[in-house]
Structures are given as C-alpha cells and as structure tokens.
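Raw record, unedited: EF hand
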Amino acid sequence: MVPWITSSITIPNATVVAAGNAGWLINSVRGDDALKESALKVQAACVGLLLVVTGCGGMNNDDWRSKSVNVSSAASSAFEKLDTNGDGQLDSSELESCPALRDSLQLYDSSGDGNIAKDELESRLSTLFASDATLANITCTVLSSNRPVAGATVNYAPVEFLADVLSPAQGTTDSAGIARLTYADADLPSSLQGRDLMLIGLYNVTITAGGETKTCGHEANSSSREGVNPTFDLKKL
C-alpha cells in the first residue's frame, strides 16, 4: 500500500496542512491567502518524503533474484493431486503422472522402498529450496544414441504443485545438442531480461525433435552437475 504522509507547520495567524500519497496531494490554508507560498513548501516536503519512502520508481520492486516456497503447502498440494489411492505414499503408478518426481525418485525416496512418502517429499523440497527458489543457469544436453541432436525444442513445465512459484522455460539445442533454458522475459526481473536464467525446482520436460516428442522430468538444482546440466538420450526415454 502506498504510504500516506501528512506534514504541517504553524505560523502566526495560520495553520498550513499538506497531506498526500504517491498519486496526489492536497493542501489547505486557514488564514491569509498570502501564506499559500508556505503551503506549497510543505507540499513539496511531502513529495520529498514520498520519494524517500517509495523510491523514485514507486513501490514496484522488480529486482528479485529468488522466490520463497512454502514446502509444507507444496507437499500437501502434491499429495492431494497425485496420491489417488490415499495411502500416504506416491507409488510407481501414481508417479507416472508426474515425470519430474518419477525421474528424480532417487533424490526423494530416502527409505529406498520405491515410493515417496509425504515427509520424504517435504524433506527434499526443504533441501532444494533451502535458499528459496533461486535463479540459475540451467542447460541440458539432448542426444540420440549418444550423438548430439541439433534443433530440438526443449520445454520445461513446472510441476502443478509448484506452479504458483515457477514458470515455464524453453530452449533449443545447438550443434552440440546443448539447450540453454530460459524463462520468457515477462517471467524474469526487468534487470535480467534477455539472459538465460530460470528458477531451480521440479519440472516436467518435453523434447521435440524430428517430429517426435518425448517426455521426462528433471529436478533443476544448483548443487550437482546433473542438476544444472542433465543429459537426455531420446532413445532411452
């Protein structure tokens, strides 16, 4: 909310009051009209205070580098959507509807039983977002029978239970099969638009090459090589 600031001065035979917010100012003078000049000075003081409080650019701070994640809420949302039999575990059949978790199972299944329990999901998300969802340079390599695939379109779609924080990312592979993934400019802070950046997190991935589309998943993180540069072999997907 834009702050409201009131300033007043009292001088002989008159009280000058100036009040305003970022959008408009009003002033009133009780006393001689000749004191209007004093009122204008107070009004100017209000403007100065507003600039200090809100900044010259107003209240719109578009210089973020990370976004906070409520991991407890995200885990609850994931189980509401994915735990179709209500047993408190995400089994192999349920994980098929979330390639990001399915293909990152080893990171989430701390018990090694092949399933993901809610506390396991929340624990891993807490580790992943320990410093919030931060911007990072994420690339991926697309191969076919171990050979680089050029011109493949790679789309990263955030998992549904993190879609309120993450955005879609996209990239196209070069001659070495490497795609530099990035958010659309509208999803990046204004000072970083045009750069290859995206937020770390869980994404369902689709890769289109040669008229064929393959689906997989990826936990984009900044703590491992696979996290920042996964390799997808189309023949193995």
